[in-house]
Design a protein that fits this description.
- With 207 residues, the chain is an alpha+beta fold.
- It folds into two domains: 94 residues, Glutaredoxin (3-Layer(aba) Sandwich), CATH 3.40.30; 97 residues, Glutathione S-transferase Yfyf (Class Pi), Chain A, domain 2.
- Helix content is 52%, strand content 8%.
- The chain has nine helices and four strands.
- The protein has a four-stranded mixed beta sheet with strand order 2-1-3-4.
- The longest helix is centred in the middle third of the chain and has 24 residues.
- The relative contact order is 0.16.
- Bound molecules: glutathione.
- Glutathione (GSH) binds next to loops.
- The site of glutathione has 10 residues, from loops.
Length: 207
């Protein structure tokens, strides 16, 4: 299995997930700042938008961190990082799996760009509602599905950590405690250490 990744990007959530699943993989560095590095045929075939992360597993190729998270959890950690297909908890799990790409990330763009919110018209609602729902989702904790840590926590937890890094995570004790719980996980620590170890490659970028 090959993971196309670049330090300091969303690819860290795929690394975290793979570490949680305990799956062996070969990391293939795509330095996004280096056109030669991006011009990797396998990467171009695997990621139609030329974005990281992207995953090649035998004949299966996919990009999008959410798709990768779901693929790994179902294929290699079913019942552990994902409720099994006939488990009623699957509904809630899928909701939170999609919450990051469909709601959190567009709402972050709204916040960063100071775009006018329009809860009824925008598919993601608005930033403040996203935060309210996120808080409600983790207030009982420790994880989104209660006692069971799942791939949805890798998606949503990494979003909380990114929002904190970019200073847009509101002063919410619930959300900060959740982000801290995620960061305490050995697999996340391993992913962050791996990321930091390779971050210097970005300094040699050509643009
Ligand atoms: N929705 C995608 C977003 C991926 C994404 O935007 N990745 C950025 C790095 S964080 C990227 O590859 N940017 C390079 C580019 O667009 O040229 C996902 O969740 O995987």
């Amino acid at each position: 299995m090959k993971l196309f990744w670049c330090p300091r990007t969303r690819a860290v959530r795929a690394v975290w997930l793979l570490e949680e699943a305990g799956v062996d993989y070969e990391p293939v560095l795509i330095n996004l700042g280096d056109p030669d590095s991006r011009d990797n045929e396998e990467f171009r075939k695997t990621s139609p938008m030329q974005k990281v992360p992207a995953l090649q597993d035998g004949e299966a190729r996919l990009a999008e961190s959410g798709a990768i998270a779901l693929y790994i959890a179902d294929r290699y950690a079913s019942g552990k990082l994902a409720p099994e297909i006939d488990d009623p908890a699957r509904g809630e799990f899928l909701y939170w799996m999609f919450f990051t790409p469909a709601v959190v990330e567009p709402a972050m763009v709204e916040k960063f760009g100071n775009h006018p919110s329009n809860r009824g018209q925008h598919g993601w609602g608005d930033f403040d509602t996203m935060i309210e729902i996120f808080e409600r989702g983790v207030e009982d904790g420790p994880w989104l599905l209660g006692e069971q840590f799942t791939a949805a926590d890798c998606m949503v937890g990494s979003s909380a950590v990114f929002m904190r890094m970019f200073n847009i995570l509101p002063d919410s004790a619930v959300l900060h405690a959740y982000a801290d719980r995620c960061l305490e996980r050995p697999a996340y620590q391993k992913a962050l250490a791996f990321d930091a170890e390779h971050a210097s490659v970005l300094e040699t970028s050509t643009d």
